[in-house]
Amino acid sequence: QVPVTESGGGLVQAGDSLRLSCAASGRTFAFTDVGWFRQTPGSERALVAAFDYSEGATFYTDSVKGRFTISIDNAKNTVYLQMNSLKPEDTGVYYCATKRSGRAAYNRWGQGTHVTVSS
Q1: What is the pLDDT of residue 102?
Q2: CA distance 55 to 88
Q3: What are the C-alpha distances in Å from 20 to residues 2, 10, 55, 79, 114?
Q4: 49: CB partners within 8 A, 6+ apart
Q5: 1 pLDDT higher than 90
Q6: Cβ distance 11 to 116 under 8 Å?
Q7: pLDDT tier at 3 (50, 70, 90 boundaries)?
Q8: Between β-strands 92-100 and 32-39, what pairing exists: parallel, antiparallel or unpaired?
Q9: CA–CA separation, 80 vs 103, rounded Å?
Q10: Cα dist. 109→16, 25, 115 in Å?
């Protein structure tokens, strides 16, 4: 599966925007599902947004619908998570993960990037 590296996190104020990047290392995202997960202290990683390769469909958890957008730039082998109207509850470590299209579990994870949203 596709190894990835995240970037783009930072400290912002509520209402600001950030764009996270997930770059593939030496591979493309063909036949690959990609997910963005968020982890906060004491909690497990939770899926925030995902791209299903076989369906060409996107998924968003309810709390980010209308604010976050996942997209793929195949020319740059990069997946983005555009985050608008950020809220303090969006704070966490964001991980990009990949799996072979159709497989159940994500099995390739990036190192994570920190997002802190102050009120």
Answers
A1: 87
A2: 32
A3: 17, 10, 23, 8, 10
A4: 35, 36, 58, 59, 60, 61, 64, 68, 69, 70, 81
A5: no
A6: yes
A7: confident
A8: antiparallel
A9: 22
A10: 26, 12, 17
Task: Return the number of other C-beta atoms located less than 10 Å from residue 74's C-beta.
Answer: 11
pLDDT > 80? residue 52: yes
The strand pair at 113-118 and 108-109 is best described as unpaired
Examine the pLDDT at 95 and tell me if it is beyond 80.
Answer: yes
How is residue 33 annotated by DSSP? E
- Burial class of residue 68 (count of CB atoms within 10 Å of its CB; 0-12, 13-18, 19+): buried
Give residue 73's pLDDT band: very low, low, confident or very high (50, 70, 90).
very high
What does the radius of gyration of the chain's CA atoms come to, in whole angstroms?
13
User: Vertex 57, ends 56 and 58: CA angle to 5°?
Assistant: 135
Cβ neighbours of 55 (radius 10 Å): 11
